[in-house]
Amino acid sequence: MKKLEIELGRIIEFYKENIKLFKIATVIIIVIVAVLIFAFSRRDEQIVISDNTDNSGIKTEESNITSNENKKFFVDISGEVNKPGVYEVSSNSRVFQIIEMAGGTTKKAALDAVNGAEIINDGQKIIIPSIEEYNDSSDKSEPNANSVSSCNKVNINTADATTLQTLTGVGPVTAQKIIDYRNEKGKFKSKEDIKNVSGIGDKTYAKMETELTI
C-alpha cells in the first residue's frame, strides 16, 4: 500500500509540475480532431453535391425525352378510309398508323398514292384518293397523298423535302429553306407567303403557283 501511495504521489506531483503541458497537449489534440472532422464532413458534402448534380442531369434528359414522346398531334384524314375524321396521335406516328386508326382503306383506295412510312405533322390533312382520282392525276411520280390536299397539289405547310422538290424551281437547298422557314415562322397563311422564303421571287412563284396549296 505504501508503495502504491508513493507512486500515486509521484504521479500527482508530476501532473502538477507539468499541468501546463497537459493543457497545451489537450488543446492541440482537440484542434486536430476538429480539423479532421471538418475535413471529412466537407468531403462527404462534396460527394453528395456531385451525386445530386449527376442525377439532376440524368433526370432532366429523361424528362425531355419523355416530354417529346408524350407530345400529342392532331391529324385530319379523309378520302378512301372507313372512318374519316380528326385523330389525336403521338408526335412520332406515321401515316400507316393513322390509316389503321381510321379503320383502314376502302376497296377504292389508291394505295400507290400513299407514303405510309412518312412521319406525320401536327395539323396535317391526309387525303387518300380513289383509284379513279389517282389515275386522272397528272403526277404519279411521288406517293404524296399524305402531303397534299388534292392529288396534284403540294401542301407547303406539311410536305417533306422530297415532295417540295417536285415543285417547279425547287431543289434540295430551297426545299430545306422552306422547311426551316416553317419551323421558325410557323405555317404559311397563304400561298403567296412562300415568297418570303429566300430564293423564291415573283418569277419562281408564278411558275409554281398552280402547284401549291395550304
Q: How is this fold's topology laid out?
A:
Blueprint: H1 2-17, H2 19-70, E1 72-79, E2 85-90, H3 95-101, E3 125-128, H4 131-136, E4 154-155, H5 161-164, H6 172-185, H7 202-208, E5 212-213
Parallel strand pairs: 1-3, 4-5
Antiparallel strand pairs: 1-2
Description:
This protein has 214 residues and is mainly α. Among the domains are: 70-152, Roll (Ubiquitin-like (UB roll)); 154-214, Photosystem II 12 kDa extrinsic protein (DNA polymerase, domain 1, Orthogonal Bundle). The protein is built from seven helices and five strands. The protein has helices at 2-17, 19-70, 95-101, 131-136, 161-164, 172-185, 202-208; strands spanning 72-79, 85-90, 125-128, 154-155, 212-213. The strands form two sheets. A three-stranded mixed sheet has the order 2-1-3, covered by helices on one side. It has a two-stranded parallel ribbon with strand order 4-5. The chain is rod-shaped.
